[in-house]
Amino acid sequence: MTTSISNPPEDQIRAKALALGFDLCRFTDIDEGWISAKRLAEFVNSGRHGEMAWLAETVERRSNPRAMWPDARSAIVLGMNYGPDHDPLALLARPTKGAISVYAQGDDYHELIKSRLKTLARWLQSQFGGELKVFVDTAPLLEKPLAERAGLGWQGKHTNLVSREFGSWLFLGSILTTLDLNPDPGETTTCGTCHACLDVCPTQAFPAPNQLDARRCISYLTIELKGPIPTEFREALGNRIYGCDDCLAVCPWNKFAAVAAEQKLHARPSLEAPSLAELARLNDAQFRSLFTKSPIKRIGRARFIRNVLYAIGNSGEPTLAVEAEQLLNDASELVRGAAVWALSRLLEPGHFKALREAHRSLEQDQQVLAEWCAYA
Q: Tens of pLDDT along the chain (376 residues)?
């Protein structure tokens, strides 16, 4: 690697990263073990990862970047701001609209950031040599502690990264390299006595500061969980149909946040405050079309409509019952079961009983039958 005292490689790399649209670029060595690796092992051993089996399967590889790639010497950690131009919590007061997490209202950040990282990686290798690997979220790499070590921010009491410059709204990407790069100073926690993120959680998913029980987290329940969402959490979902921003949005550090500069990360108008009624009518082709280039597409129509139906059940709007009733004969048992719950909340007891008598004899799925039988 060639170096210049007047223009060291770190400065050149940072300048190139910013030119490619990244908002932060910092460096860290990866020689030491991770304190976070112990926390992850405790998280998995306690079962708090829920159905995310891939976490349990990769605990050892996540223990340190070198556990995944022994030749790695340094990490380049990059951040891209996706700050919204509105308060994400305001939509929760509009129960006939669906609340979608800010990160999923624009284009899929995985594809956007990976493309930029690959461009940076090619330039980096041409300029300085060495071997490298590019990561965006899906690899067995603990990116939040890596970002903390590099000084992009710190993990708050809600376990998410908090940035001095961008508050809660920062996508992360990483490049591991065999180059020896000078590390930036790490960041220290500055949450102080604040616990707003813990208090706001609708499902009490934080057993203690810096601990998360994913099985109670609305993001996990609406995205990762494949079956029916446990009854105890359904009312707490409100109108959240994909993810949850509550613990992020209330962070006081967001007063320093800025609106995302990258246009592809801006909310699509169709996803800012979508009508629950219109979403409930989506067939598979329409679902795929609406969520082209969106991370929402990955969970599939059935899981998404399940979420929409729980929101309809929470809406308190009897006119939405017709949308749920239309889905009692849906091909997906997941959808049918959620429709039953929604109708149990919106219909008069006599009307619901009549529907139950009409549909129960035709239903073959035991989980859907259990939904019908659970409500008088």
A: 544 456 899 999 999 999 999 999 999 998 765 666 777 667 677 777 777 775 666 666 666 787 788 899 999 999 999 999 999 999 999 999 999 999 999 999 999 999 999 999 999 999 999 999 999 987 777 888 899 999 999 999 999 999 999 999 999 999 999 999 999 999 888 899 999 999 999 999 999 999 999 999 999 999 999 999 999 999 999 999 999 999 999 999 999 899 999 999 999 999 999 999 999 999 999 999 999 999 999 999 999 999 999 999 999 999 999 999 999 999 999 999 999 999 999 999 999 999 999 998 889 999 999 999 998 6
Domain-by-domain residue ranges, the chain? 9-195+251-269, 275-376
Considering the candidates 137, 184, 213, 245, report the single residue annotated as catalytic: 137
Give catalytic status of residue 23 as yes or no: no
How far from the centroid of its chain's Cα atoms is residue 91's Cα? 18
Task: List the one residue out of 258, 303, 305, 239 whose CA is nearest residue 100.
Answer: 239
Alpha carbon distance 59, 150 (integer Å): 22
The model scores a pTM over 0.85: yes
Residue type for 151, please? Answer: G
